[in-house]
Every structure is written in structure tokens, then in C-alpha cells.
Amino acid sequence: MNAASALLPVGTMLRLRPEGNTEYIDFMGSCGMECCQVCRLSEDYLNGGSENSKSQELLECLAKYSIRPVSVFLCYKNRSAGNGLVTPELRTGRFTFAFRQMLWAKRNGIPWIACHAGVFPKPDCPEYRCFVNDMQEFADFAADLGQSFLFETGPETLQNIEHL
Length: 164
Description:
Radius of gyration: 17 Å
Order of helices and strands: EHEHHEHEHEH
Number of helices: 6
């Protein structure tokens, strides 16, 4: 499906909770939601492949109301260290965890991957080119999986992003 030509019905973000999601999904169904963006995929969902009971439970609950998960909004371990993929010290670990979430999405037919990339380094900063190259690899990985990669940044000026 081409992201630019697809029209999505009304949906919402589904922030997965450790204590369970059934009550919120029931509410989404009663409101007539038809799609959702899944957020906060934890190890409980990522481990175990297609036999994972947490994933099966989630997808069955969504299917009960014909709510289609259309995107995964990437989350990261150690969120207290800030949002996004920008921090060089955290990038490798965050990319690895993000790739696992993308594979989960692929297994479950979810075509869009979204994330908060963080505030881009300034173009004259040595880290800028490295970040742009890493983001390109990230987008290439999504494309290899047949997914579209969508990202938010942090307040950015046009000068910071015009070279992408």
C-alpha cells in the first residue's frame, strides 16, 4: 500500500500497558475506531515470534472490533535519557530495539513505522552527516521489509533539515 495514496479511517494511538489493554480496546471499539497506531511494544510482545501470547491476545482483541493496527510508533528502552535516535551514545541500542519492533510489525502486516527522531544535529556539526547516514540506513531497513518509515523531529528550523 502506498502511504501517499492511502486514506485511513478514524483511529487513535494505542499505548500498550503492562496491566492489559482489553478495557481500552473495548472503549476504542465502542467509539467506532477502525484503526490504531500501536505504541510501547515491550519485550513481552517482541519475544517468542508468532507464538507470543501477548501479541496474539492484542491482535485478537483488536480483531474483535475490526480495529486494524496500521502503524507502530517506536519506543525505546531507557526513555528517561530522552526521545529519539539522535544521541550517538544511545543510537545503536535504540536502533536494535527499533529493528525488533519493525520485525514484529512486519510479522503482523503493519505497513507504517513511525518514531520521534529527536532534534537533528545542525548541518555544520560533525555528527550531522553520521546521523543522516544512519537515518538513511533505518529507512532502507524499513523499505527492505516493505514498510514506510515516518518520523517526527524536534523543534527544527528549515536550515537544520533542508539537506536531508
